[in-house]
Fold this protein.
Amino acid sequence: SIQNSRFDENHFNSEVKTVMSELNLRRKGESTNPLSFCMPYNHPYTRSIIGTREDLVKASASDLRKFYKENYTPEKTVLIVVGNIDQNELIAQVESTFGAIPAAQKPTKREYCAEAFIQPNEIQKNVTVHTQTEKPSVLLFWTMPGSKNIETNIAANAVSYILQERLLKLKDSYAWVFSYGTWAYRLLDLGVFGIDFSPKTEDFSRMLPSTSCVEAIHTIIQNEIHDITFNGPRPEELENFKVLSKTNFAGSFVSANSVASLLSEYIVNNNEYEAFDRYDFSQKLTTDQVKSFCKKYLKPGLVNQINIVPLQENEKGEWTELQNKIDAYETKLLSGKNRDSKLDEPKLLGKLPEPKVSDFEYEKPDLEATLSNGLKVYIKRKTSCPEVRAGLSFKNYEYLSLYFRQQNLDDVPSYASFMLMEEVEGTAEHPSKFSKKDLIKFFDSLGAEYAGGTITCQPTDLETTARMALHILTHATYPEDALQREINNEIQQIKLSQDNLNYLMSKAFGLHFYKDYPWTKTDEQIIEQLQKETRQDLLDFCKQWVAPQNMFLTIVGNIDPEATLALMEKVLGGWKNDEAKNIEDLKNITINDISNPEPTPISIPHPDEQISLYAGRLSTTLGTNDALALSLVSDYLNRKLFEIREQTGLFYYCCASTEPWSYNIKDYVSIGTRVSPDKLEAAKQEIIAAVNEFAKNGIPQNILDETKKKVKTELAKAFSTPESLFGSYRYLIKNNLSFDHCKNQIEKVNKISLDEVNAVIKKYFDINDWSFIVGGRIK
């Protein structure tokens, strides 16, 4: 393909329409791109990476062909290979495969001169964008050098980490924001240091820069930056940053993909040791270097601000009219870009070798045991992993979740989990209560992470972190004010989501298909339920269900299994809760069977750049033969939908989802896309035709055979890292599946016949049983 890409004019015509759809999806983001505000007007970074509408329409396939030949040449290519390979064999294979590709006859080298874009004047911008969005947001940003400058990069990362910790009070103590983030975004020539936040305002339809809440947040941010600039980071902040950098760097060598990504940094400065140099610099970073970065790049007079403001109701009509004019203009531009030919079969100069099916044998835990208190423990030693991952989980978690949904306490398990660290009772060594900030500092100081009952730490710190994790689990206080803050946040998010088309579409789909499940609720019912939940509900949850006999512990890492089991008995064996209920009893919960509802067309009027179209029907649960067949047809159906994209250019994406996700709740097969209003009917008819053809003809035998081979290969890759293996243990145990589950699935996949698969396709892809939901600027 490197030598023989054709760039057919007909293919190009349909692709232009597809890219135009992508431009429409990106339009909102491009209007708030910091680079377009802070760079000189003539700098390449100010332009959209996929061009403009006019550029796309004027271009031709011959333009692409010429660009490709000039730039996609061997001397401009870097090949990175990571895996279980023989170096000499690989070099010989690369030479035989790619060595015949001729070098460019006239190599082109574009000289880039950064000095051409220097701005001697310091320009500060404050921009407000009124757009179709569900909630206001603010972006503060400063320009800085790009990736080529290592010192600036590492200092920026340190400041971002420090501010992320210090600004936690905006969300927790003050409750002024829904969310916030600090980041350092770098391209080669330029970087942007940014802080974004979504402020809470009483009037969600309007947020202006002068809003007192935004001004107060801005002041706190500037005060923290001023403190770092003149006083530097606190010693523990800088030390914690170095520890976390070291942990993250070590974690980069766990999988082939992460190592390949690490080595790709070679391209920045043509330095094979680029990633290692950056790590070395992070460990040597000084207080003065951090202060110097802030003084030079984070000056108060250089901060730019972009305010994203939701449209008011009286503005939405005018916005829709303008959007309709844009659609009409784009339709006119694209009127000459039509594909006259059908898709060609792929043409290859030679037959590709059959791919080898990867050998796969699931790595079971090295040790399974039960502690004296009834806690089941599963331990796996992985010497390739520099860290340990340990996690406590509930047995039968899906049944536990269903139980609380039936009790109209849907959110109690999730609140009990993510609010664990809000406030924790003290210990003998630390009598005062632990705040959330205290706990974050504790884990950061060890280069460890703790979230939702899962610890990631160094092997030497396993005992220390495990003791703290148990203390958090058994001594969380769940402060009333923190719970009310979270409940209010969720209620406000639900109200704000009424302006989010994706949310409305997904909600409508769920209400339509799951209306016969007793726990299905409207937004109003969810809000009413949230307002009734109390701190006592969380405390009761812990008392009744958080017990060693109801949970299991999974540990994966470079550890000795027997020694680790002894350590866990020492740390966790004394934990007891004899008052807890038995989670095994929840398996008796009755889940009523539901059937596919009467096919119904549903419309959701909404001002948005594009129309959303969902179609689907109720299917089945995991563990059934139907679910197995549906898992084998997803790739093929998506390939057929991609061919429609290539042929017509109607949409940027069109995705099918066929695989169930739950062992107890039925899922649905569905197809979703986004199109401009004038293409809605055409897209709908193409999807109907595709589903009808799929139901009629099914999947070919050769494609099914390829898919079966792919299942084994994908499983071999899916559990290749300690993290993925850790996740698979938890999944299997929570769902009462054996460690032979993957082996059994492969056997079932190999046995299932073409007739069985195509019978399932006919069962679920009768378009007369499908419901359609359309949302956007519809009449």
